[in-house]
Amino acid sequence: MRLANGNGPKDGGGGFRARWLIVAGYVAVIFLLSAQPGLHVPGDFKLGDKVAHVLEYGGLGWLLWRAGLETWPRTTGLRRALVAIALASALGAVDEKFQAGVPGRDSSAFDWMADTLGASLAQALFVSREKRGEGT
Q1: Which DSSP state fits 13?
Q2: Buried b (16+ CB within 10 A) or exposed e, 58-91
Q3: What is the C-alpha to C-alpha distance for residues 60 and 75, in angstroms, rounded to an integer?
Q4: How does DSSP classify residue 122?
Q5: Domain parsing of the chain, residue ranges
Q6: CA quadruple 99, 68, 17, 55: dihedral sign
Q7: What gap in Å lies between CA 36 and CA 31, rounded to an integer?
Q8: Ramachandran quadrant class, 104 (left: phi over 0; alpha: psi -120 to 50; beta: rest)
Q9: Is this structure's pTM higher than 0.85?
Q10: Which candidate, 106, 123, 127, 102, places its Cα nearest to that of 52?
């Protein structure tokens, strides 16, 4: 399905659907982990939880970048990145709200900020790579 402005999936939709299904699967795993009562990052590293959030949402940011690239190939990297950051940040906020109702789990604005940071770092990396002409 190609839009009137020429934007749309590159391959007629197969890669488009596959990329977004992978994103949906990753989001399902995030919520599955969030639903585990008392789940904590192993180890004694004081900021281990925040690092885990940055890495988790950095991975989501990468998947969103690839899905966005497939979906909107002619849109600028910056626009795709801003959409991906907004989606990941909103998802992080919903995830934190969800965790507030899970026994033994904490909900924190700092966790949400770490989620948004992870997605933002991934987008910054891929926008810079795109500007240099490197693949993802």
Answers
A1: T
A2: bbbbbbbbbbbbbbbeeeebeebbebbbebbbeb
A3: 20
A4: H
A5: 14-131
A6: negative
A7: 9
A8: left
A9: no
A10: 106
Cα(129)–Cα(27) distance, rounded to whole angstroms? 25
Cα–Cα nearest to 3, from 56, 97, 76, 71: 71
Closest CA to 63 of 119, 2, 130, 7: 119
Q: How many CB atoms lie within 10 A of CB 4?
A: 6
Provide the pLDDT for residue 1. 46
Residues 40 and 47: their CA atoms lie apart, in Å, by 12
- The size of the chain, in residues, is 136
The first and second tokens of residue 78, run together, are: 């910056």
Q: Angle at the Cα of 123 (from 95 to 89), degrees rounded to 5?
A: 20
| Residue 122 identity (one-letter amino acid) | A
User: 113 falls in which pLDDT band (50, 70, 90)?
Assistant: very high
The model's pLDDT over 2-58, given as tens digits with 9 standing for 90+, comes to 454 445 555 556 677 899 999 999 999 999 999 999 887 777 777 888 999 999 999
Nearest to 136 by CA among 57, 52, 70: 70
